[in-house]
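Changelog-adjacent note: as of this version, every example in the card shows the full chain rather than a window. The one below runs 273 residues end to end.
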Amino acid sequence: MMGDSTLVLKETTNNACPFLVLEHCRVDGFEMLKWNQSQGDAELRLNSSILPCLKNAKLLKPDNFAISDEDFLEAWLNAYQLLRATPFVTATVNQFAIDDSCLGVHLRLTDKVKAKRSPRGISCAQLPALCEITQRQVLHSISEHQFKRIYLAADDGIAKQEWIERFQNLGVEVIAHEAIFDKQQLRQTSGSDFLVDLFALARCSRVIGTTWSGVVLTSVWMRGGRQLTFASDEFRLNQVQDWVIYNRQAFKRLLKTIKSLLKTILPQCPRKS
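Full-length structure tokens:
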């Protein structure tokens, strides 16, 4: 709820996000307060699970906002640039001296990897190929944009260390924040560690993610960027082709079954004399 430079937050923790924004972040130009019942509901309410897109902008824009849906969406995306970290997080990120010569890489190889592939994830069988695509995209970006080093963030400590060694063996300089991970929640154990990665990625001139992730989206928008790069997008293109081929074959099998049933049923049906 915004008004008189005040931002009132009604938030609770859960497994998806165990950290409170009020404890770890500030919004530039606003006094942030914790919501209480006496304040009632806000005119403009945004759920953290609802991401900025034109469809959601049309749904959420108040009727009395005299701007287009497109302008509302742009203002929504620009608002990410107002996020500010705590002094401790800022001081930690400053130590990395990240500038435009740094490429951000975010690994999400845990909950997005399923036994069966999902719309925004991949299957276990696709994991080796995804790793190859990620490595290829990172090396291509380094070559094309003359990046001198990468900042590596991850949702799992083991994968993070493996990829640090992978890139170092390829001659790439890697920066990474030392953090303790919670294997159950697939993220850092503290909000400060999580935000160090987020704000560090936001300082990189480009970010590549293995799979769809709010961390990548937020870091790009915080910098004012719009280009989103996910290695798993290559699988998504293949999935569309696979879906068409699979369903074409399934449709043929269905027609064959129907024909077989008709051959069995029709001779048994009574006919008019």
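Structural remarks: Confidence is low (pLDDT under 50) at residues 239-247.
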